[in-house]
Amino acid sequence: MIEFHLDGRSGVSPYQQVVQQVKNALRLGLLREGDQLPTVKDVVGQLAINPNTVLKAYRELEHEGLVAARPGRGTFVTRTLTDHSLAAHGPLRQDLRRWLAKARRAGLDDDSIEALFLTTFRAAAQEDIA
Q1: How far apart are CA 42 and CA 83, in angstroms?
Q2: b/e string for 109-126 if b means 16 or more Cβ within 10 A?
Q3: pLDDT, tens digit, for every residue of 21-66?
Q4: Contact, 17 vs 10, CB < 8 A?
Q5: Domains in the chain: boundaries
Q6: Does residue 19 contact residue 60 with C-beta atoms inside 8 Å?
Q7: CATH 1.10.10.10 fits 14-77, yes or no
Q8: What's the CA gap between 49 and 60, in Å, rounded?
């Protein structure tokens, strides 16, 4: 089962963070078809947010066809976003962990690491387009 976390400094609304975390879990194969999402009550208790925030996130995921609400039973995953290359995730994750450790040894904090990764990622994406 997925466990949500909110980053108040991200500038991203709580409901969008919940949506993105579910989508990431679907991409990484952490959530599969048939898996149940935490109940609204559980998420509210865990994150101390308004129930309408969780409902809004779950409705958006349902609108996108990723989950379905079953009255009285909960919300369940109806499809995943995996690209069937999950076998590559393990080695890539290890490489990324080594890179993160190297960045920390170089004195970068979390915000600097994130900024470096995102700018490099976006630059590489632009090069792929050109």
Answers
A1: 30
A2: eeeeeeeeeeeeeeeeee
A3: 999 999 888 899 999 999 999 999 999 999 999 999 999 999 999 9
A4: yes
A5: 14-77, 86-129
A6: yes
A7: yes
A8: 17
